[in-house]
Amino acid sequence: MRGSLALSIADPSQVGEARRSAIAIALRLGFNETDRGKVGLVVTEAANNLLKHAKEGVLLLQEISQGDRVGVEILTIDKGPGMAEIDRCLSDGYSTAGTSGNGLGTIQRISSVFDIYSRPEIGTALLAQLWVGQPSSLPSFETGAICLPKRGEEVSGDAWATKIMPQRSLFLVADGLGHGPSAAQASAEAVRSFIQNCDRPLPAIFEAAHDALRSTRGAALAIAEVNPEQEALRFVGVGNISGDILSFSGNHSLMSHNGTVGHEVRKIQEFTHAWPSDGLLILHSDGLGTQWRLDRYPGLRQKHPSLIASVLYRDFNRGRDDVTVLVARSTAY
Asked: Whole-structure pTM over 0.70, yes or no?
């Protein structure tokens, strides 16, 4: 369970604030001095890019992990003019703002993972990840998530978690009832129970979470289990967490029952769906509007899950609730 830190970038002083926040995260994660400098440089370049080009520019910082490895994820999203020629914009020396034109190229070179999505007159989303250490193996799933509190709240009542295992992978989104610390406590308890019971069958994991949340105000909860070898996705949901399987052959919505986990759950029912090799799983809390359609964004589906989550957050965040968007895709695709 990791929340995102959202920083508005509309003033030069906010660039320094973003840099300091990112370096503090890197220091906490054990980045050495050289690598902390790289994190600071990437954030500085990304934030300055927002300052020069963006409209409603936001920089998101998040701790990430993959097995024993940890890292820092940096996302920028804006509703600026966008880029018609991304490859040209990545070339050193190209600029539309009278600068040296090295910013995007610098970010790309320094980052362990780099991706960008931009549409003219709509805006740009940029992803950079910097990691400590080298991966021991390629994970079977690539995931990305945005988890932010309602405006005015310090903590999010939402939470998310994943457990990637050899035979199956599990994905959870929880939305604690209401907002603030009590809602956050409920969703955190759902994550704790999920991690403790993830080796059990899916309905048993859900039942354990229901029992664990009885002392809290309760939550909406959805858990998806994907088994690529069986080409199957199993899903259990209670409350207003939305779930969708997207593929080039068609899309399928996942069904949740009414109720509140920890209080009133009339039925814990597992649904099984086909999981296509090109499947994309999207789970989100009701802080995100349901009117989104990925096919309105040409080429976005092939981008990193974190970019997909950030674009959906940018364009469909309701603004009056905690919001979580979790996106996952098999790396074998």
From this structure: yes
